[in-house]
Q: What sequence folds into this?
């Protein structure tokens, strides 16, 4: 019997036009207890972070000094953090590790280890690099009712995936939580002659 691998989940704040860059500049006005509970539950159910360099540097500057009554910051700061970077040599944030060699192979190895969820926060470049290797088991998107026009997007012209919507929840501030899993049997194209088909 094969061993169950750990789930790798990507979690992001996304604008209506797909921008994920600098959510601290546009998401805070929509924050409420529902979103707070989702992020707390997500963090308590995971026991490792996977981050790209840019996201890691932002988190490492902000999180070590934070405290909260729910224990979110303590959990976030204490769990192992794995960083995909060719340039970072020293990692000051507690329990941080640079992934050596091929990132996809290193992530696949991490998934084989015993443990709970590994969560990628932000890090769109890292997510896009892992997509062709079928390593991401779940996409958790908080879609905000804002159009930003410019900024780094989650997906680009190189991205390709068939996904299945498995959960959707609308929060009272208009933010929509959408959870997707990879879909191994996407819908077939309609036969020629059907209105709307080519």
A:
């Amino acid at each position: 019997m094969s061993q169950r691998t750990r789930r790798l989940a990507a979690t992001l704040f996304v604008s209506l036009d797909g921008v994920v860059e600098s959510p601290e500049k546009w998401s805070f006005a929509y924050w409420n207890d529902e979103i707070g509970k989702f992020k707390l539950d997500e963090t308590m159910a995971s026991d490792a972070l996977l981050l790209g360099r840019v996201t890691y540097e932002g988190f490492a500057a902000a999180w070590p000094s934070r405290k909260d009554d729910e224990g979110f910051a303590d959990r976030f700061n204490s769990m192992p953090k794995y960083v995909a970077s060719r340039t970072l040599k020293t990692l000051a944030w507690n329990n941080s590790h640079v992934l050596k060699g091929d990132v996809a192979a290193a992530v696949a190895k991490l998934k084989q280890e015993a443990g709970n969820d590994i969560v990628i926060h932000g890090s769109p470049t890292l997510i896009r690099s892992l997509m062709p290797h079928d390593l991401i088991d779940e996409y958790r998107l908080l879609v905000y009712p804002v159009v930003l026009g410019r900024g780094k997007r989650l997906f680009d012209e190189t991205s390709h995936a068939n996904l299945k919507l498995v959960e959707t929840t609308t929060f009272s501030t208009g933010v929509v939580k959408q959870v997707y899993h990879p879909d191994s049997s996407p819908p077939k194209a309609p036969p020629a002659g059907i209105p709307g088909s080519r």
Summary: The two ends are 46 Å apart (CA to CA). The chain has a mean pLDDT of 91.
